[in-house]
């Protein structure tokens, strides 16, 4: 099992997405709000090395944000 200790996996959690011109992004300051295409109850997408592997939700416990996996993503192919 020690061989697995050296494998790196990039985990990404996507809350939502949006598209905007770069000049809008460059004008944003601290506290700016970016509207996403997801609602607060929509599931999060969880990616491992840019591959969708699961869906989840955000919870708060003892002041810490946590991502709880609700179900695995369906595999194609």
Question: What is the topological layout?
Answer:
Layout: E1 11-14, H1 22-27, E2 44-48, E3 51-61, E4 64-72
Antiparallel strand pairs: 1-2, 2-3, 3-4
Outline the structure in words.
It is a peripheral membrane protein. Residues 4-71 form the Flagellar motor switch protein FliN-like C-terminal domain. Pfam families: FliMN_C. It comes from Devosia epidermidihirudinis. One of its GO terms (molecular function) is cytoskeletal motor activity. With 77 residues, this protein is mainly β. It has one domain: Surface presentation of antigens (SPOA) (Roll), CATH 2.30.330.10. The protein is built from one helix and four strands; from the N terminus they run E-H-E-E-E. The protein has one helix at 22-27, and strands spanning 11-14, 44-48, 51-61, 64-72. A four-stranded antiparallel β-sheet has the order 1-2-3-4, with no helix packed on it. Strand 2 and strand 3 (51-61) form a beta hairpin. The radius of gyration is 16 Å and the shape is extended. The two termini are 29 Å apart.
Structural class of the helix and strand makeup?
mainly beta
Number of helices: 1
Number of strands: 4
CATH class annotation: Mainly Beta
Major beta sheet, specifics?
A: 4 strands, antiparallel
Strand order of the largest sheet: 1-2-3-4
At the fold tier of CATH, the topology name is Surface presentation of antigens (SPOA)
CATH superfamily: SpoA-like
- The proportion of strand residues reads 35-45%
The rough form would be described as: extended
Distance between the termini: 29 Å
Question: How many structural domains can be distinguished in the coordinates?
Answer: 1
Q: Please tell me the overall pLDDT.
A: 91
Radius of gyration, in Å, reads: 16 Å
| CATH architecture name | Roll
């Amino acid at each position: 099992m020690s061989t697995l200790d050296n494998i790196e996996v990039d985990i990404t959690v996507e809350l939502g997405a949006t598209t905007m011109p770069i000049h809008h992004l460059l004008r944003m300051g601290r506290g700016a709000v970016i509207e996403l295409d997801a609602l607060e109850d929509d599931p999060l997408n969880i990616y491992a090395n840019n591959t969708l592997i699961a869906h989840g939700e955000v919870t708060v416990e003892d002041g810490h944000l946590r991502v709880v996996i609700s179900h695995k993503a369906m595999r194609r192919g």
